[in-house]
Design a protein that fits this description.
The chain is 36% helix and 18% strand. It is α/β, with parallel strands linked by helices and 322 residues long. The radius of gyration is 19 Å and the shape is globular.
Length: 322
């Protein structure tokens, strides 16, 4: 059963979808936290943000499909449009990392007040940057039932983006041209990488990305906050059961990040850590036709059944459904 609803964060109405499984009283619940860039509750890039995405991108519906999976095994879910995206209020162009964390924190607090679910049995699932935000939330909240990482990072953002940049320029010219058309913001981040990071470290507020065809005054404070709060510093605070999921062919974050996070969690004393590096799958857990297929092209493919099976089986094994 789907309920369109909202919570308030810093005076902004944040719209989302609460999914309740049928015929289960007070089920456990999972809060979904979306990745970087403007994103909607279903896990899609917000095509209304034409200064970010001048070419409409496919709807991958990652969170919608995962919510369906969890509903079938008796787990409620809540997913929301990020601030300033979809139907939510606010200005996404001026969102900081700590603003995103505050919204996730507010969503969790609100979810615990919903009478139809068991407020004492709530876990979180984060995708990409959302896995990082979920990590920060799990580090401050010892009462979470579980934490699921999907394609997250252990090192800081500069390390990951410099890795992305090196890998990007190894692609053939047609792939680079296609990416420039579909994702100009990322293309220019790779093209202007050194100048961009210099401005971030100088605490500048904006940096001009692009050329005469496409350009954007890019807001830098969130990136500086990424440097100030690296994910690695939060791992030793996570004590709940953890599932680390990563595609072996992830072009956004290398799968070695999951292994580093696994090592840090275990060394900090967490013995309930499960890791799956899924062969052939990309950042959105789509099966690639070839190792160099970009994630934009792969978005039109379905969520891979192997990933779905791993997620469902882990939840069944670790989360009792009354």
């Amino acid at each position: 059963m789907l309920n369109q609803t909202y919570f308030i964060s810093k005076g902004h109405k944040i719209q989302g979808t609460l999914t309740l499984p049928n015929e289960i009283n007070n089920p456990p619940a999972c809060l979904f936290i979306g990745g970087s860039f403007p994103q909607t509750r279903d896990g899609n890039l917000d095509n209304s943000k034409t200064d970010w995405f001048p070419v409409s991108l496919p709807q991958r519906n990652l969170f919608r499909d995962e919510a369906d999976l969890l509903e079938k095994i008796g787990i409620a879910t809540f997913r929301y449009d990020k601030r300033g995206c979809g139907e939510s209020e606010g200005d996404f162009d001026k969102m900081s990392l700590l603003d995103l964390l505050e919204d996730a924190r507010s969503a969790l607090q609100w979810l615990r007040t919903i009478p139809e679910i068991d407020g004492k049995r709530i876990g979180i699932l984060g995708q990409s940057e959302g896995a990082y935000i979920a990590l920060m939330l799990a580090a401050e909240d010892p009462n979470l039932l579980f934490y699921i990482w999907q394609g997250g990072i252990y090192n800081n953002l500069e390390t990951i983006l410099r890795w992305q940049t090196q890998e990007f320029w190894k692609l053939d010219s047609n792939s680079i041209a296609n990416f420039k058309k579909n994702m100009p913001l990322m293309y220019w981040i790779y093209r202007q990488s050194d100048d961009l990071w210099h401005n971030i470290k100088q605490n500048h507020t904006y940096f001009k990305l692009g050329d005469k065809i496409w350009s954007k005054d890019f807001y830098l404070p969130p990136w500086k906050q990424h440097l100030d709060y690296p994910p690695s510093q939060f791992a030793n605070k996570i004590k709940c059961p953890v599932l680390l999921l990563h595609g072996k062919l992830d072009h956004n974050t290398p799968s070695t990040e999951a292994l580093l996070m696994e090592k840090a969690l275990i060394e900090s004393g967490n013995k309930r850590v499960t890791t799956y590096i899924l062969p052939g799958l990309d950042h959105s857990f789509r099966r690639l036709s070839n190792p160099n297929e970009d994630f934009v092209t792969a978005m039109v493919k379905p969520l891979d059944p192997k990933m779905s099976q791993v997620l469902v089986n882990w939840l069944k094994d670790n989360i009792p459904i009354h």
